[in-house]
């Protein structure tokens, strides 16, 4: 399923969507495919807009170069520390889900950067997901044997995986125990985890059960779009044991943190948000990113106020304002983007 289709299949359950809509300048709109495409396509600030608004750097382009460039909501900060705890201790099972542009990859990048900066003895095991699909008709499924090979290569790049499944399993356990004696922790990190097939999800529980005495030798972190939430919903009896052990966290939209997010982004490039946004612009941005979606039972209000969508909407508004010769972003202009 492509990203645009995912927006129609998955609905954010964050209760803040309705709260944000209370102050919106317009009623919720119906989400269309054209609108979804517009919000997801990354946009760049035009030279004319940079000149018009005194933006010598694009506030949303290459915007994260170090940890201090990260805007952290309380929810994101909690997820960040949870990731760190699993990585540092090498135990636990966490799935992070969110829409495209919600900040999942940014959190993973921050985790890797933190491990490097602090010199933490953490070995991240990242099986290749380049061609991964959830069935072999669409692509190549990631199997438990692939994860075992990734563990072996991560612990010793010169090692050769054993041929038989039994020998390879024993090899993995032995190598993890040896590495743990050197005070290393180990975490399997799988991005695009919404494309994991059900059998592999079930097998992840068995990786969690690899121990040396009482000490667990592996943690597991899954990163995926909201289809992963459906797979781990508990409705499928096939994955019930996984659901019981996996903590699932959904990244919510910015909603109440919209003003803080934009202030942070523009302050970072030396721009004053008050000189760029009219007072009514924030409510207009909210209104443009709050939508309604009718399912078979009722109409639901959803928020797509995720960083990527906000970035694209504001960038498009800045470009249009510059083209029209406007000095600030007004609610009327944002409504027309």
From TrEMBL:
One Pfam short name: AAA_22
Record domain AAA+ ATPase: where: 90-255
SMART domains reported for this sequence: AAA (SM00382)
Cited Gene3D superfamilies: P-loop containing nucleotide triphosphate hydrolases
Name the UniProt record assigns to this protein: AAA family ATPase
Organism: Methylomonas aurea
């Amino acid at each position: 399923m492509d990203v645009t289709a995912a927006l129609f299949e998955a609905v954010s359950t964050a209760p803040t969507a309705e709260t944000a809509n209370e102050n919106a300048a317009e009623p919720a709109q119906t989400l269309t495919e054209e609108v979804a495409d517009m919000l997801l396509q990354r946009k760049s600030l035009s030279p004319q807009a940079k000149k018009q608004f005194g933006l010598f750097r694009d506030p949303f382009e290459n915007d994260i170069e170090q940890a201090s460039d990260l805007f952290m909501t309380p929810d994101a900060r909690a997820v960040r520390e949870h990731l760190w705890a699993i990585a540092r201790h090498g135990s636990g099972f966490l799935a992070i889900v969110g829409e495209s542009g919600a900040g999942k990859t940014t959190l993973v990048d921050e985790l890797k950067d933190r491990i490097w900066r602090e010199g933490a003895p953490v070995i991240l095991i990242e099986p290749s997901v380049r061609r991964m699909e959830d069935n072999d008709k669409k692509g190549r499924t990631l199997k438990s044997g692939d994860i075992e090979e990734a563990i072996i290569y991560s612990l010793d790049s010169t090692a050769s995986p054993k041929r038989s499944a039994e020998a390879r399993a024993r090899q993995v356990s032995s190598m993890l125990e040896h590495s743990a004696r050197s005070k290393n922790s180990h975490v399997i990190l799988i991005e695009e985890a919404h494309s994991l097939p059900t059998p592999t999800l079930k097998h992840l529980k068995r990786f969690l059960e690899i121990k040396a005495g009482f000490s667990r030798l592996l943690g597991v972190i899954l990163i995926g779009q909201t289809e992963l939430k459906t797979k781990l919903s508990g409705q499928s009896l096939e994955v019930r044991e996984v659901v019981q052990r996996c903590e699932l966290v959904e990244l919510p939209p910015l909603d109440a943190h919209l003003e803080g997010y934009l202030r942070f982004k523009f302050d970072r490039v030396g721009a004053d948000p008050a000189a760029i946004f009219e007072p009514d612009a924030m409510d207009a941005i909210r209104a443009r990113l709050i939508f309604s979606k009718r399912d078979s039972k009722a109409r639901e209000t959803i928020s797509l106020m995720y960083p990527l969508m906000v970035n694209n909407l504001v960038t498009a508004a800045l470009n249009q304002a510059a083209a029209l010769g406007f000095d600030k972003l007004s609610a009327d202009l944002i409504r027309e983007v």
